[in-house]
Amino acid sequence: MHATRQATVSAAALLAMATAVVGCDSGSTTAAATADSAKPGCPAVLARVKSAVKKAEDVDAPWDGPTTGPRAVPDKTIVFVAQTLANPGVTGVAQGVEEAAKVIGWKVRVINGQGTSAGIKAAFGEAVALEPAGIVIGGFDPKSTAQQVRQAKAAGIPLIGWHAVGAPGPSEDPELFSNITTKVEDVAKISADWIIARSNGRAGVVLFTDASIPFAKRKSDLIKKELATCSDVRLLSYEDIPIPEANSRTVEAVSSLLSRFGSEWTHSAAINDLYFEHAATALRAGDRQGADAPFNIGAGDGDPSAFRRINGREYQAATVPEPLSEQGWQIIDEFNRAFSGRADSGYVAPVHIATASNSGGALSWDSEGYRQAYRKIWGK
Question: What element of type H or E holds 276?
Fold first, then answer.
């Protein structure tokens, strides 16, 4: 990796080498530092992450979820309480729930929490008052609606979360029949690995998160942890922007970041793709081209607008998509298991990386065959 050096080096040359090393460590943009940064960083880590990224980019993902379960229970009504329908991930899952409900023969009502604490509590309260067979907690922390959770439990209404708590599967506190999500550890890790691999171990990274959501905060903390495994990757800034405020605050934040870091900012990760929808305006105003740095990856949710940006090479290079429609169908299947007195399915979707090179122009990512599998289980 390093060129062979002569046995005798002048004092001036030694000083020049020392300056280059210091410049690299401090993020200097001197010619010496720029030349040094062209070399691959953290070689041991780089080999590992490139292998992981290659596997995650594989598009051959046949259905490996449940193939057996209870037949459809008739005549149920489900209420989907959405943190905010401005979050495309939440909306995508809600649409999947509605689609699956039509197939199984149930009714669904979606109530928008509008992204505020008061709005979410009101929406959840309305859901409980409707006395449905089940309630979906769509993208918010159930502990923030503890009173409504207690009311649902007292009424015997099972709860299923989507990105509601930090881990997939059943939860005891708060009590959820199941929480539907990919493993946040896997999503965070592969997002950071993509940056390390894409930059050849040399990146200046900005990380966007919403620390008000425990799930999102944990995801961004895990991304930071994985980025730190490569000593030649620098975290330039950690931007805490609540999702409901992303529209108004991201443009200003990105403009400031461009001014502060310039060409040092080479990559970004965000806990949700929607940050890059708003970042595009400021990047364009800053004379950045859509296919150029910073190369941005969304660590969820993989909504259609994110795929359009990726496919068009417009200020987003990759996403780690949740299989949103598939997860909506899984929510209906999990409710059917709850209503039948069965345990949850235990299924957790594997992580995938979507790029312009492997998306095939699609606007979503779901495993092949899930609809047919669930129809067969339900007898529909």
Answer: helix 274-285
C-alpha to C-alpha distance for 379 and 165, rounded to whole angstroms: 31
List the alpha helices (DSSP H) in 74-142: 88-104, 117-129
Residue with tokens 């539907």: 180
User: Which tens digits make up the pLDDT trace of 149-187?
Assistant: 999 999 999 999 999 988 999 999 999 999 999 999 999
Strands 134-138 and 159-162: parallel
Cβ neighbors of 214 (< 8 A, separation 6 or more) are 141, 165, 166
pTM of the predicted model, to two decimals? 0.77
| Rounded alpha-carbon distances, angstroms, from residue 161 to 13, 38, 142, 274, 319 | 62, 45, 8, 21, 22
Q: How many CA atoms lie within 13 A of 64 on its CB side?
A: 7
Residue 191 in contact with residue 269, Cβ under 8 Å? yes
Handedness of CA 175, 176, 181, 183 (dihedral sign): positive
Q: Is the dihedral of CA 179, 185, 188, 190 positive or negative?
A: negative
91-122 pLDDT, tens digit per residue, is 999 999 999 999 999 999 999 999 999 999 99
159-162 and 176-180: which strand pairing? parallel
Structure tokens at 127: 């859901």
- Alpha carbon distance 367, 233 (integer Å): 33
Work out the widest C-alpha separation in the chain, in whole angstroms. Answer: 86
Residues near 75 by beta carbon (within 8 Å), at least 6 away in sequence: 105, 106
Query: Quick count: other Cβ atoms within 10 Å of Cβ 267?
Result: 25
Phi, psi of 236 (to 5 degrees): -75, -40
